[in-house]
């Protein structure tokens, strides 16, 4: 659902691609194709296509530093009922990342931008919490955890505190201050 992406919904998006490998043009084209299976691109799900794209990205550039921001909301945007459809695909993706040792040097953040904004769930106490405190999971590489125990302690502490998007922005600012010993190759 590229029309509701973080940088496109009620906004103009980017004049130029914001990263070296930008998947949005592919998804816009693929979503414009008529399909009897709205959650699929041909014989695979849209989520699996995204996971394949990430895997291929890691395979093509195994030693270069990478930044990727991917957005997928097909299963959850209008209803929570389809979220379980993603379970097996997400598990297989995470297992693949672990098996290929991609997580050894990768900060992996899986998050939602908001909780459910529809149906009667929103009117419940749990629904109000989920809308305002969306899911977030941060996995740091083992080497980073060992090398920066204070940062990891603070990250764990903050995982139990009320945080805002401003806190997340500050977290990204801190992470981007670290410099790799391996020079970036364009």
What does this structure look like?
With 186 residues, the chain is mainly alpha-helical. It has a domain at 1-104. Helices cover 39% and strands 6% of the residues. The protein has 7 helices and 4 strands; from the N terminus they run H-E-E-H-H-E-H-E-H-H-H. It has helices at 24-32, 46-60, 87-99, 125-132, 142-147, 149-158, 165-176, and strands spanning 40-41, 44-45, 108-111, 136-139. A hairpin with a 2-residue loop joins strand 1 and strand 2 (44-45). Helix 2 runs parallel beside helix 3. The mean pLDDT is 81.
Helix/strand structural class: mainly alpha
Largest sheet: 2 strands, antiparallel
Principal-axes shape call: globular
| Strand content range | 5-15%
The residue ranges in which pLDDT falls below 50 over 5 or more consecutive positions are none
How large, in whole angstroms, is the Cα Rg? 18 Å
Please provide the count of β strands: 4
SSE map:
Elements: H1 24-32, E1 40-41, E2 44-45, H2 46-60, H3 87-99, E3 108-111, H4 125-132, E4 136-139, H5 142-147, H6 149-158, H7 165-176
Helix pairs in contact: 2-3
Brief overview:
With 186 residues, this protein is mainly alpha-helical. The protein has helices at residues 24-32, 46-60, 87-99, 125-132, 142-147, 149-158, 165-176, and strands at 40-41, 44-45, 108-111, 136-139. It has a domain at 1-104.
Summary tags:
186 residues; mainly alpha; two-stranded antiparallel sheet; two-stranded antiparallel ribbon; 39% helix; 6% strand; globular
